[in-house]
Design brief:
The chain is built from 11 helices and 13 strands. By secondary structure, it is an alpha/beta fold. It has a 7-stranded parallel β-sheet with strand order 3-2-1-4-5-6-11, sandwiched between helices.
Length: about 300
Amino acid sequence: MRVLVTGAAGFIGSHLCEALLQRGYEVTAMDNFDSYYDPAIKRRNISGFQERVRLVEGDIRSEKALGLALKDVDAVAHLAARAGVRASLGDPGLYVDNNVGGTQNLLQAMVERDILRLVFASSSSVYGSRTSGPFREDEPVLEPVSPYAATKLSGEYLCRAAHKTWGMQVSNMRLFTVYGPRQRPEMAIHLFARLASKGLAIPRFGTGESVRDYTYVADIVEGLIAAIEIPCGYRVFNLGNDNPISLNALIAHLGQALGSSIRVDSHGDQPGDVPRTWASIDRAKEELGYSPAVPLEAGLERFVAWLNQQSA
């Protein structure tokens, strides 16, 4: 099978490309190498496999770039997006343009070329602010509390419309707090580890009792590939770890992986943040064979080893 991965040079996208290549897929990698964070990091992400993919440097908002990327493709894994809950508060229009407009451009271009198999990377943020869990895919009310979350839910609705209107086979994958090697530098685990390794205090927003379902990137990739291989008509899947822990507990585990204590600089609650994420993964287990295999402690140790290698 020939697969296009959009956002291929990013954190999750680069891991997905590698895993697809290892399984014998032909891969087209598309990325616009934007400046949300240092494009050199993204170049480094793909350096190990760049010669084995067909690389298209372009934006999903460009019809010309999409035409090049979709040539001779059977399925699409759509990971390209403007990322970041907090950053979306400052420029929501940019997020709508990229994540909603770009996704619709891709869907239209796929239909015009009779490419009808899509895996869409959505987000746990679509569930909004909840105090209990686990979160189930069939919950009737979704209340996103940030522009980023709203654009991801909008993307899901566009994908559902593409299924109803054009018969596109779509798996909407709600990803829960993904971490691991190549994680974006502003994300909590990466930021905390860098600061703590220099003996600096980390910024902690709120009391530290917020809860997240941290999921190692290799487990996420397994779920994405299963969705590529098992078309489901139209289906929504959670990809998480079903083992949420508090921010304070995460900081303690990260300190153990680093081999040092972590000093905390406390701040007030951050707008756009939610108190809890927690994935029900029963559907993904039953229909995709999804089974996360990397516990948090092991995943943090792998991340720290990668980070140390980067700074060596």
